[in-house]
Amino acid sequence: MFNGSELRLRKALDSKTPIIGSWIQTSSPTCAEILANAGFAWLGIDCEHTSAGVQGVENIARAIHGRNTALLVRVSRADIIEIRQCLDVGAAGVIVPMVETAAQARTAVAAAKYPPDGVRGYCFGRMNDWGACFDEYAATANKSVVVIAMIETKAGVDNIDEILAVGGIDGIFIGPYDMSGSYGVPGQTQHPHLKKAYQSLVEACRRHGKVAGQHIVKSTPGKLNEAVALGYTFICLDADIILMHQSARAVMETAKETFNIK
Description:
- The chain is α/β, with parallel strands linked by helices.
- It contains twelve helices and eight strands.
- Strands 1-2-3-4-5-6-7-8 form an eight-stranded parallel barrel, surrounded by eight helices.
- Helix 2 packs parallel to helix 3 and helix 4 runs parallel beside helix 5.
C-alpha cells in the first residue's frame, strides 16, 4: 500500500519541485537502508547494469520500508512482466532505459497501469499488504505509480515530443554516457552536441509539463545549483558505490597523513 514516501514523490513530480535520490548499484539492502536513513527521498535500484533481479528489489523494498524513502527500479528494459513484478514486490515506480519511441513509452506505461489504462495484472501481493489493502491499492495505483523514461540516444532526443505526449509518462531521466556514444563522442558527456541535446530535452519537458531528471556524479553545491537553474527537478546524487569509494579513500588519506604512510 502507498505510504508517505510514495505520496511525497508523487507530489514533488506533479509540482515540479526538486526531489533528491541516489542509485543503488550494490544490490545491498544494507546500503539502501543506510542511504534511506541519510534522508534521500527516493532510491533507484539498478537492474539494468547489475545482477539485481526481482528478489533483490523485494529485499531492498523491505529494508527501506517505513523510512520515508520511495523505491524506484531501473528495469532492464520495457518488459511487461519485469515491470509488473517490480511493482508487485513494493516499488513505487520504474525508470525505463533506452526509450527511443512513443511505442516503447506506451509499452512501459501499459505494464505499470491496471486496466483500462494498461495491462498490469491484479493479484494479492506485497504492494497491497498481501491483499489486506487490495481495494485501496487497486483504486489509487494508476495515479500513484511513477513511470520515468530514460533518454539515452540521439533517436530518443529526436522523438522526445512524441515520447512525452504519451499519457502516464511522468518525465525523463538523461543517460549521458550512452548518449555520448550515440552522438559519436564516447565519454564526452559535456560535449557541445550533448549539452545542446540536454537543453532541448529540458525545454521539451517544460512544454509537456513533465519532469526532467539528471544524474550528478561526485556532487557539489555548484553542480546542484546548476542543475536546478537549468530546469532539472528529479535529481540523482552519486550512487552507493561512489559514496563508499569517496568515503573510504578520504578515511585512508587521513590515516596516511596522520601516520606518515607512503
